[in-house]
Amino acid sequence: MTDAIEARLAELGLTLPDAPAPAANYVPFVQTGAQIYVSGQLPTGPDGLIKGKLGDDLDAQAGAEAAKYCALALLSQARKAAGGDLSRVRVVKLVGFVNSTADFGDQPKVVNGASDLMVNVLGENGRHARSAVSAASLPFGVAVEIEGIFELL
Question: Where's the Endoribonuclease L-PSP/chorismate mutase-like domain (predicted)?
């Protein structure tokens, strides 16, 4: 990882966790050519998994905070795929799944937590295409799950 990216993380008061191990029978990422497909990452904060349902016991701001932790896990996987050098990585697309009630409509605000972090950390290489969709439930009752596609530069 370059000094500039490390400095940005430090300015934001963040550190990248170790790349999380998969929770079932899949791999955390697959590289094909210059593309890296990262499996869905769950929000693990300082106190463990961030659980809850948006529109019920969590609001959009709490969901965005959970999405930020998903983004940190995504970056950890991308860093591992890039041999430890995030300066070689560009975010292509994020897909965010938001555990939300049927009447909750702020999924984009929730996934902004991940999108904002990518741009804040990687600058222009963090800008990406994106989807933000509702899910009736997610593994372990987490608030959000985000998968990503990255490109090695």
Answer: 6-140
pTM more than 0.70: yes
- Give residue 101's pLDDT: 98
Looking at residue 53, what is its pLDDT? 98
Could you give the CA distance from residue 87 to residue 28 in angstroms, rounded to a whole number?
A: 20
Give the C-alpha separation, 127 to 143, whole Å. 23
pLDDT digits (tens, 9 = 90+) for 90-100: 999 999 999 99
Which residues of the chain are under the pLDDT cut of 50?
A: none
Cβ atoms of 19 and 80 within 8 Å: the answer is yes
CA separation, residue 136 to residues 8, 109, 121, 128 (Å): 35, 18, 31, 26
Domains of the chain: 3-18+27-104+115-129+148-152 (3.30.1330.40)
